[in-house]
Amino acid sequence: MKVLKFGGTSISCEQNILNVKKIIESIDEPVIVVLSALGGITDQLITTANMASVGDNEYEEELSKITARHLNLIEGVISCSQLCAVEVQNKVVHLLNELLNILKGVYLIKDLSIKTSDAIVSYGERISSLILSYVIKEAKLFDSRKFIKTEKHFNKHIVDFELTNWLIKNTFVPLPKISLVPGFISSDKETNEVTNLGRGGSDYTASILTAALDASVLEIWTDVDGFMTADPKAISSTYVIEHLTFNEAIELCNYGAKLIYPPTIYPVYHKNIPIRILNTFNPNTSGTYISNEQNSTVSGKSLIKGISSIDDTCLVTVQGLGMIGIIGINYRIFKTLADNDISVFMISQASSENNTSFAVRNADADLAVKALKEEFALELEQGEISDIKAEKELATVAIVGENMKRTPGIAGKLFGTLGRAGISVIACAQGASETNISFVIKLQFLRKALNSIHDSFFLSEYKVLNLFIIGVGTVGGKLLEQIRIQQITLMEQNSLNLRVVGIANSKKCLFCKEGLNLDTCISELKENGEDNSPNHLRKEILKLNIFNSVFVDCTASKDIAGLYASLLKNNISVVAANKIATSSKYNDYLNLKETARQRDIKFLFETNVGAGLPIINTINNLINSGDRILRMEAVLSGTLNFIFNTLSAEIPFSKAIRMAEEAHYSEPDPRIDLSGSDVIRKLVILTREAGYKVEQEDVRTNLFIPKKYFESSLDDFWKNIKELDAEFETMRQQVASEKKRIRLVAKMEKGKCEIGLQKVDNHHPFYELEGSNNIIMISTKRYNDYPMIIKGYGAGDDVTAAGIFADIISIANIR
Ligand code: ADP
Ligand code: ASP
Ligand code: MG
C-alpha cells in the first residue's frame, strides 16, 4: 500500500485533474490519495476572509470567483449529462453557501478569530476532495477531521499522534482500493472544531497517514521533476537531485525549499519509510528518492546537495560589552522569544560574546525587538546592553549536504564565491553536524548569490558568462556576430554559455536577464530600446545585479570609460577596446587595476594596442616570469601605416585618409590617429604595462601635421587636409628615391617615450609592413640581442572584435 499526495499545483485545472486521475488509476495496489485545495484557493480564501474582516464588501466578489472556478471545473471534469454532476454541484454549492454565511458573520462583526479563519480555509480541501471523489468513481472519500486530531500548544495546533495513529488504524479497515483524503485539515481533539496543520500541511497529512499505516512509500506529486539543487523558480540552472538522506531533506526544507512542508519528514523518518518526489506533468521520470541510505548515487558525489533560501528574513542583534562572559543572556533572549511564540531559524554569536544575532521572519521582527527591550530594560538603562536592533530586507541562504562533514575548504569556497560576486555576508552559522552552512545577506543579492553558489558548487552543464556589450556599431557589431556564430560551439566544446544580457549604442539600450536573441537584438534595440545615457546604463546594470557579469566597452567614449570604476567596485569585470581609461591619469589606471585585483575579477584591454595581437598579454607574461622590459619600438598605428602604404601618385594623402576611415581602420574621428594621439595612448599603455609610470604629457612627439588642422571641426578638417596633399607627395617621391619607407614609430627606452616619423630602409624589420599591420619589437633582459617581434593586423573591426572575444573567453576560463 502506498500514499500519494497531490498538491494544489497538480490539481489547478481540468486537464491537470484528468492527469491525476490517470496516475491514480494506473496503480495496482491500494492507495491513499491526499489532496490539497485547488492551486491558489487557500490564498484566495485567506484574502477573502481578510477583506470581510475589514468591512470590504468586495469579499463577495472574491467569493464568487472561487465559486465560479469550482463550478466550471466540475463542468469540465464531469460530463453535465451525468446525474452525479448535478449531485456534486449541489453539494459544492451547499458548502460554498455555508462559507458565505461564515464570511457574512465576519463582515458584520469585523472580526476574524483564528478559529473562524481555520474554518474558512478548510473549505479549499473539503471541496477539492469532494470533486475528485466524483471524478474517480471507485474512490472512497474520507474526512480527515475525523482522524487527524490536534491539541493546542502555544497558539499552535500540534498533532496528538497517539490518538491520531489509533484513529487512522481504525478508520482504514478494510482498506479500500482508492481512498481519498483531504489534506491540511484536522480537528481539535477536545472541541472537534476544525483546525489545520499549517500552510503546505497536506504533505504532513500524507506523511502521518503513511507512518500510521506502515505504507511502503510516500509519493509527493507536484509540478517539478523532483527536489532540485535550488528553487527552479529562483534560478534556471538547477537540476534534479536523485537521492537525499532524510537529514539533508530536513535541512533543505527547514531553510525554505517550499517543495515539502518541513514537519512532513519526521513521521516517515521515524518509521524509515522512503519519500519519492514526482512530477504530475512528467510522470515517467524517477524524481527524487529520500531515504536513510547514505549517498551512493552519482549526485551523492558532489560536495553539497542543495541550496535553499528564505527571502523573508530579519536579523535581530542584541549587543553590548556588558554581555561578555555573563551567563544566561542567551537563555533570556531565547526564552523571551519562545514566550512570544517567535520562531528563530538561524543564530550566530561571535566568540567575543559581545553580540548575539538571530534570524526571524519580518512579521515577527518588531515584536521580537519590543519583547527583548522589555526583558533587558535594566541592562539597556545601565548600558550593559547598548542596542537591540532589527535589520530587515534580508535573505537567508543555506548550503546543505552530508558530504560536507569533515571535508575541509567548503566554507572557504562558499565565502570566496560570494566575495567574488561582491556579496557581503552579514551573519553566518554552521552547526557542528556540518551538514548545513547558513548565512544572511541583503535581499537584493539573493538571486545573484544563488546563481553564483550554484555555479561554483554544482557541475552545471554550462558555465555562464553574462555580457553587456556597449557600442554595437562596427567593432561591437562584429563582436555580436562572432558570438552568435560561435555560441553553439562554445556550449558544445567548452561548456560555456555566453549570454548577451545587454546591448547599447549611443542612443538606446536593451536588456534581457535571460539573454538577448542575437539574431534580432540589433533591430530590437532600434525599435524597442530604452533611451540611453551612461548613468542610465550604470543604474540598469547594477539593478540587474547578475552574477558573472562582464562589461564590454567597444566605444571610444570618455563617459563610458568613466563607468569602469563603479562597475568594477560592484564586481563586474570589464573588457575594454576603449583606450581612454587605461591611458588617462596614471593613478586612475592603477586604481582600476587594483580594484579588479582586490575583487578577484578582471579588467582586460588587450585590444587597446595592436587590435587582436597578443601584445599586452605577452608583456604581462614576460614580467610575471621575472623578465624586465628594457626597450620597445613599434609601429602601432594601423591607420597611419595603411595611409603611408597607400600613398601613390594616384592616391593623395587626403584620399588615403578617407580610405582608412572607410575601411574602419581609423578611430571614428581620424584626427585622433593623425595627430598621433592614438599612438601616444597606445605607447603610454604599453609602457605602463611594462612597469613604468608615465603620463601622456611625458611622451615626446614630433608632429608631422601642423596643429591647426586638428583645431577646427571635423568637416573643416576634411576640407583643409587636402592642402597637405602636395607636400606629402613630394615627401613620398623623395623617400621612394632613397628606397626607404616612412613609418610613425613609437619608442620606449627604460620608461622614456617618444613618437615620430622615421624613414626605414629595406633591412629594417619595419620596412615590410603591409596594409594596416602593426609591429612591435620588445627587448628585455632575456630577449636582448634579438628582440621579440610581434607582427600582424593591427586594426580592423574583425580582428579587434576577435581580440575582445579572446579577453572574454579568458575570463570564462578562470572563473
Ligand atoms: P504543491 O502545490 O505541489 O504542494 P508547492 O508550490 O508547495 O507545490 O511546491 C512546489 C514548488 O516548490 C515548486 O514549484 C518550486 O518552485 C518550489 N521549490 C522550492 N525549492 C525547490 C527545490 N529545491 N526543488 C524543487 N522545487 C522547489
Ligand atoms: N492548501 C494548503 C495551502 O495552500 C495546504 C497545502 O496545499 O498543502 O497551504
Ligand atoms: Mg506544497
From TrEMBL:
Transmembrane segments: none annotated. GO terms for biological process: homoserine biosynthetic process; lysine biosynthetic process via diaminopimelate; methionine biosynthetic process; threonine biosynthetic process. Keywords: Amino-acid biosynthesis, ATP-binding, Kinase, Metal-binding, Methionine biosynthesis, Multifunctional enzyme, NAD, NADP, Nucleotide-binding, Oxidoreductase, Sodium, Threonine biosynthesis, Transferase. It catalyses: L-aspartate + ATP = 4-phospho-L-aspartate + ADP; L-homoserine + NAD(+) = L-aspartate 4-semialdehyde + NADH + H(+); L-homoserine + NADP(+) = L-aspartate 4-semialdehyde + NADPH + H(+). Pathway: Amino-acid biosynthesis; L-methionine biosynthesis via de novo pathway; L-homoserine from L-aspartate: step 1/3; Amino-acid biosynthesis; L-methionine biosynthesis via de novo pathway; L-homoserine from L-aspartate: step 3/3; Amino-acid biosynthesis; L-threonine biosynthesis; L-threonine from L-aspartate: step 3/5; Amino-acid biosynthesis; L-lysine biosynthesis via DAP pathway; (S)-tetrahydrodipicolinate from L-aspartate: step 1/4. One of its GO terms (molecular function) is metal ion binding. It comes from the Bacteria. Residues 399-472 form the ACT domain. Its cofactor is a metal cation. Pfam families: AA_kinase, ACT_9, Homoserine_dh, NAD_binding_3. Homotetramer. In the C-terminal section; belongs to the homoserine dehydrogenase family. In the N-terminal section; belongs to the aspartokinase family. Bifunctional aspartate kinase and homoserine dehydrogenase that catalyzes the first and the third steps toward the synthesis of lysine, methionine and threonine from aspartate. This is Homoserine dehydrogenase/aspartate kinase. It comes from Azobacteroides pseudotrichonymphae genomovar. CFP2.
